[in-house]
Amino acid sequence: MNDERLAKYREMRDFTRTAEPSGDAEMHATGDRFVVQRHRARRRHYDLRLELDGVLLSWAVPKGPTLDPAARHMALQVEDHPLEYADFEGTIPAGEYGGGDVIVWDRGTWDAVEDDPAAAIEAGTLHFDLHGDKLVGRFVLVRRGEKQWLLLHKKDEHAEPGWDPEDHPRSVKSGRTNEEVAAAPEAMWRSDLPPSEAEIPLGANKSCATAHWDPPTGEELAALDELGGKGRWRLAGRNLALTNLDKVLFPARDGEAPVTKRDLIRYHALIAPVMLSYLADRPLNSHRFPNGVDEPGFWHKEVPSHAPDWLRRWRYEDADPDDTQWYLIPDSVPALAWLANYAALELHAWTSRASDVRHPTWALFDIDPGSRTTFEEVLVLARLHRTAMEHLGVEARPKVTGQRGIQIWVPVEPRYTYAETRAWVEKVSKAVGGTVPELVSWAWTKTDRRGLARLDYTQNVINKTLVAPYSARPRPGAPVSVPLEWDELDDPDLAPDRWTIRTVLDRIATVGDPFAALLDVEQQLPPV
Ligand code: MN
Predict the structure, then answer these.
(1) Residues 313, 327: contact at Cβ < 8 Å?
(2) Domain range annotation of the chain
(3) Taking the chain (528 residues) in consecutive chunks of 10 residues, what is each chunk's mean pLDDT?
């Protein structure tokens, strides 16, 4: 339907046409979207795109749109773009037209002031209101040459003298900068394909499984020790403002020294190169205990406004309006140190990646002991899961929770919905639990469970999480949730809280990380 209008777009891109035109236009019948993409191509520019009659009218604005009413920025009208391009963020292959990287710098809806915007553009002046995250108020496009226009903002209540788009560099879609998107793109735009097929997801998992983080240096750790109760710590090129470093977050256990916030920050920095494999690319829910674990903690999801700019943020587009919108994605050693300073001591990453949140990469079994369940009984249940996984030919590993339980983590190809992984885990759990009815209850409420264990498959839901590998737990001595090899279930010294933030690094140095072998496993779930 918009073939004629998009002919120029195709012509410039050596477009190999296939039979079916895109049907996407119907999905946006309102037709009032706008987007501004920050595009680093041969020259960096901002692409202002207004949806009209089933295409995106487009202008390349080298200095970018601004709220500054004194600015008159050149805007070069370029070819109309397909609607599918409006949400695109990622890279365009080098050598192709526009090769470089693109972020969704701002977006929202627009209203034309003129009754007939197409005629207004034809006549050379378009007044319009933008309702975006960054751009708001009335703008004007005025033609100055065949393709040359000026873009300006009217002096209205949204005008801000001196406002510079470069001071607001992050994507409203992902929270990332162009540099961050270029370093780990989640998608590529193949403009030689039809618009409905042009966006190619890139396996962010591959980048994560092979990603590498350096531990803090000896000098960096010494500098942390030398700080008083608070101060600035430079770690991996980032400046961290640390506070209350000598505050006890975890009381002592078994004659050990209590654990201070400084100890936790050091642990987070040291464990980061191992732990980030389970956190990077994933939205984070954290359990914070600013007054130490003797006081009640609380769940924290929304990235605070005071958080430093270099922390990666991600917007959950399916969130309800009154729920958390912006999540933190810990993707660096300093990010983990920042979380420790924020007393976010128990970290729960989503089981899906931000690039594809509806498809988990882990299916989880949670052996949740009841008040009467002994650890020996938890081990019986864990070994039954081992037998089940062997029988099904499924790769998995157990992990102690650092409290009383054991979980089984199963890596899966991100092709299943949460409903599918949950149904699979439920079936296997019911089969396992059915062999030991004296140990397991399926009752929903704690009292009805009569102190028996629960095999909890209900955690396999979006934004429900289990504690991440190597996260501390809010208990005296700072015990840690630790991945195991299957045969460690038979170790008589195993205890669910055997390792703490003081001892787990030695364990990793000796036996490695048992989950590392799962990181590049993408398996399908066999029928049960
Ligand atoms: Mn462009």
Answers:
(1) yes
(2) 2-194, 218-357, 359-518
(3) 69 50 40 94 95 96 97 96 94 86 96 95 97 97 96 97 95 89 87 86 55 90 96 94 97 94 98 96 96 96 89 90 93 96 98 93 97 97 97 97 98 96 98 96 91 96 96 98 97 97 95 94 93
CA 439 to chain CA mean position, Å: 37
308 sits in the region (left: phi over 0; alpha: psi -120 to 50; else beta) called: beta
What is the model's pLDDT at position 210?
A: 55
Place of tokens 């008083």: 228
With respect to CATH, is domain 359-518 assigned 3.30.160.70? no
Question: Helices 218-226 & 261-275, crossing angle to 10 degrees?
Answer: 160
- Give the distance (Å) from ligand 1 centre to CA of residue 45: 7
Topology at the third CATH level for domain 218-357: DNA primase, PRIM domain (3.90.920)
Distance (Å) from CA 178 to ligand 1 centroid: 13
Non-local CB neighbours of 321 within 8 Å, separated by 6+ positions: none
Spacing, Cα 455 to ligand 1 middle (Å): 52
CA of 127 to the centre of ligand 1 (A): 22
Q: Please check whether residue 401 is in contact with residue 409, taking contact to mean a CB–CB distance below 8 angstroms.
A: no
The residues pairing with 312 across neighbouring beta strands, listed in sequence order, are 329
Residues with CB under 5 A from ligand 1 (ion): 39, 47
Predicted TM-score (pTM) of the model is 0.70
Selection from 456, 496, 488, 271 nearest residue 368 by Cα: 456
Q: Residue 261 C-alpha to ligand 1 middle, in angstroms?
A: 47
Ligand 1 centroid to Cα of residue 461, in Å, is 38
